[in-house]
């Protein structure tokens, strides 16, 4: 219940989010850049509220983050029951959104097993993604939380 409960619900139940960075390449260097990424805040039975990501340096978003780790992550209620049940467009202000800002960091070795459990329990198909893409785990160290809940 309440705002904190709503934020935890969105962190727990979203399987993807929109990550915004500052572009670090080419003609768009320094400009905002965004991309949708799969995420998990822990294994199915152990939600932590900390978003974990399975990423590749071939992704422009990851290239940006490796040069400037500051990012924002927006988790929409688009997949939630309220908007779907009430036939409300996901962009309607009544559909809650959570935006987390902070630093995206490589998961340290002592947390990699947890990150694997977190991602692979929610997204089993990622185990089959091409190994040549040099996948690794990142997480967001949350510094600010903004909940749009009208």
Automatic annotation (TrEMBL):
InterPro entries the UniProt entry points to: CREG, CREG_beta-barrel, Split_barrel_FMN-bd
One GO cellular component term: extracellular space
Compartment annotation: Secreted
Location (main, coarse): secreted
Keywords assigned: Glycoprotein, Secreted, Signal
Domain spans labelled CREG-like beta-barrel: 4-150
TM region positions: none
UniProt-listed Pfam families: CREG_beta-barrel
Keyword Signal: yes
Domain of life: Eukaryota
PANTHER family for this protein: CREG1 PROTEIN, PROTEIN CREG2
Family recorded in the similarity comment: Belongs to the CREG family.
Protein name in UniProt: CREG2 protein
UniProt gene name: Creg2
């Amino acid at each position: 219940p309440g705002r904190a409960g709503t934020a935890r619900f969105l962190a727990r139940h979203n399987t993807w989010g929109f990550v915004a960075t500052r572009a670090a390449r080419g003609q768009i260097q320094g400009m905002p850049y965004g991309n949708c990424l799969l995420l998990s805040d822990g294994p199915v039975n152990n939600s932590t509220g900390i978003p974990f990501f399975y990423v590749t340096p071939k992704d422009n978003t990851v290239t940006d983050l490796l040069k400037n780790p500051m990012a924002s992550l927006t988790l929409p209620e688009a997949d939630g029951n309220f908007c779907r049940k009430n036939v409300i467009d996901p962009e309607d202000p009544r559909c809650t959104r959570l935006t987390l800002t902070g630093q995206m960091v490589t998961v340290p070795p002592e947390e990699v097993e947890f990150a694997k459990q977190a991602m692979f329990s929610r997204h089993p198909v990622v185990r089959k993604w091409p190994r040549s893409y040099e996948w690794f785990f990142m997480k967001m160290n949350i510094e600010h939380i903004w909940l749009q809940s009208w």
